[in-house]
Write a structure and sequence with these properties.
The protein has 13 helices and 21 strands. It has 415 residues and is an alpha+beta fold. Helix 4 (63-78) packs parallel to helix 6.
């Protein structure tokens, strides 16, 4: 069962929120963060990417950079740019993209739930990335950025969310750059908070949608603090970390596509011929072709788009991993034909989130930077949850969620 609790959020005053709020730390590089924060001393980038306060080229993993994050976090509180709520609350955070709105509940998720598998993962994490975020959590003694969870659909929670969504929000703004809407309410009714706690307690599991490294780091730091505290009772704030939880039926996973630098010594004709062993290959011409359904792929090569349809017998619809198009393409195209064995480390391959559109794929190939592009039909939430429920792990670079959570709307302190 899933344990959650309300918490005393640290938030920007209403008139500062648009200056404070930022994109997540891992969707932009240091130079992009430096540009976005230029002239804005209140930008959260000074806390989540504090290398921007050092000379260009400073390694973001230097100890002085982590220390600067904590100094800036304290400065933001001293100046009143971030203020802690007097009481514990749940919060509601809505995002609007392309006319569609999804509503998430901001909660304190339970560290032991992560450790015992009640919070389910679908991706492997890298220890170096975990350690980076662990240092950030430790030095700030806070979860500065939330993680993104999904939960099984729940009518009672929907009703509470709808009740608050009909009221005036605390924050309501369109983020610069992406044009997505971000809206935020405080759940301040004790009965509503009790219902939220109770409904989550009846759920068999929560699912990490996005933020596997942040989840791991937050949980591991919480577990560290429990071990270091001789008077540990289990009720301390460090036993919880901040998550925004969305009902699964509101979430959409978009495609996550591949571009490859070369054809592994093959000519274009030899490559297309090799594909015919496992795929029905159809030339579609110069107009962008988008995969139409599961097991159908789009290939861009030499200025032309192709439809690839996996032949029966090349996949297993009864295997939660084998049914994935990312598995089919990894095994039968990237590995078997192009010799790419490890998607995490091979320098010949790169990945393009579907938010950029398929035109980005042809652009990367037409520029000469890449030789071939492959577009995949997106994974469904049901597939993600089935994989997590069976204890399986998705191949790398399988899911892309959009819109990303805006950081800085609320922060969770560990004491």
């Amino acid at each position: 069962m899933a344990t959650v609790k309300p918490f005393r959020g640290i938030r920007p005053p209403q008139n500062f929120v648009e200056q404070v709020a930022s994109r997540p730390y891992d969707v932009l590089n240091s130079e992009e963060a430096r540009q976005e924060a230029e002239g804005n001393e209140k930008s959260l980038y000074h806390i989540i990417k504090p290398e921007i306060d050092f000379p260009v080229g400073t390694d973001e993993h230097e100890e002085c950079v982590y220390t600067k994050a904590a100094e800036n976090f304290q400065l933001f509180q001293d100046k009143g740019w971030l203020v802690q709520d007097e009481k514990e609350h749940y919060y509601i955070y809505a995002q609007t993209m392309n006319g569609k709105t999804q509503y998430g509940l901001v909660v304190g998720a339970y560290v032991p739930d992560y450790m015992n598998g009640a919070i389910k993962k679908h991706e492997l994490t890298r220890r170096d990335k975990e350690e980076d975020r662990m240092k950030h959590v430790r030095v700030n003694n806070a979860n500065i950025e939330p993680v993104f969870f999904a939960y099984p659909d729940n009518d009672r929670l929907d009703k509470i969310v709808q009740k608050y969504a009909a009221t005036t929000p605390v924050y309501d703004f369109i983020a610069p750059g992406d044009g997505f809407g971000h809206t935020f309410w405080i759940v301040d009714d004790e009965n509503d908070m009790a219902v939220i706690t109770r409904e989550f307690a009846g759920m068999p599991a929560l699912y990490i949608a996005d933020g596997h490294h942040r989840s791991a780091a937050a949980a591991l730091v919480g577990a560290e603090k429990a071990k270091q505290n001789p008077s540990h009772s289990g009720d301390e704030e460090y036993n919880y970390f901040m998550a925004v939880c969305f009902p699964a039926n509101q979430l959409t996973i978009i495609d996550y596509n591949r571009v490859v630098k070369d054809l592994n010594g093959l000519t274009s004709e030899q490559f297309l011929a090799a594909l015919e062993k496992n795929f029905i290959v159809e030339e579609k011409g110069a107009e962008i072709y988008k995969p139409e359904k599961l097991h159908n792929f789009a290939l861009y090569l030499d200025g032309k788009w192709y439809s690839l349809t996996a032949k029966p017998g090349t996949y297993d619809d009864n295997d939660p991993i084998g049914v994935l198009d990312v598995t089919i393409s990894s095994n039968l195209i990237l590995d078997e034909i192009l010799g790419i064995k490890d998607l995490r480390s091979d320098k010949r391959i790169d990945f393009v989130g579907g938010i950029r559109g398929l035109g980005e794929l042809s652009k990367r190939v037409d520029s000469g930077e890449m030789k071939v592009a492959l577009a995949l039909y997106p994974v469904s939430m049901k597939q993600l949850m089935d994989i997590a429920d069976t204890g399986n792990i998705m191949p790398p670079k399988t899911t892309w969620f959009e819109p990303k959570l805006r950081s800085g709307l609320v922060i969770h302190k560990l004491d």
